[in-house]
Amino acid sequence: MVQVTRRHLLKGAAAAGAVAALPGPLVREAHAQTTQKRELVVAQGGDISKFDPHFSTSSNDIRVSFNLFDNLTSRRPDGRLYPGLATEWKREGQTIWTFKLRPGVRWHSGDAFTSADVKFSLERTWDPAQKTRVNTVFTTIDRIEAPDATNVVIHSKKPDPLLPARLAFYGGQIVPKKYLEAVGNDAFNARPVGTGPVRFVSWKKDDKVVLEANPDYWGGRIDADRVIFRSVPETAPRIAALLKGEVDVITQLSPDHGERVAGTGSTQVVGALYAGLYVLAVNSKRPPLDNPLVKQALSLAVDRELIVKELWRGRGIVPSGPIAKGDNHYDPALPPLAYNPREARERLRKAGYKNEEIVIETTVGYTANDKPMSEAIQGMWREAGVNAKVEVVEYSVRAQKNRDRSFKGLWWSDPTSTLGDPDGMMWRLLGPGGPQDYWRHPRFDELGEAARFSVDEKFRAEAYREMTKVFLEHFPWIPVIQPYEDYGLQKYVEWTPNPNQQFEIRRFNFKFRRA
Amino acid sequence: MRGTLGFLAHRLLRALIALWLVSTVVFVVMRLSGDPVPLLLPPDAPRSEIFRVRAELGLDRPLPVQYATFLANVLRGDFGRSIHFREPAARVVLDYLPATLELGLAAFAFAVVVAVPIGVLSAARRNSLLDHAAMGVALVGQAAPTFFLGILFILLLSLKAGLLPTGGRGDWHHLVLPALTLGIFAMASIARLTRSAVLEVLRADFIRTARAKGLSERLVVVKHTLKNAAIPVLTITGLQFGTLLGGAVVTETVFAWPGMGRLAIQSIYNRDYPVVQCAVFLSAVVFIVINFVVDLLYGLLDPRVRRA
Question: What is the reported pLDDT for A410?
Answer without folding.
Answer: 97
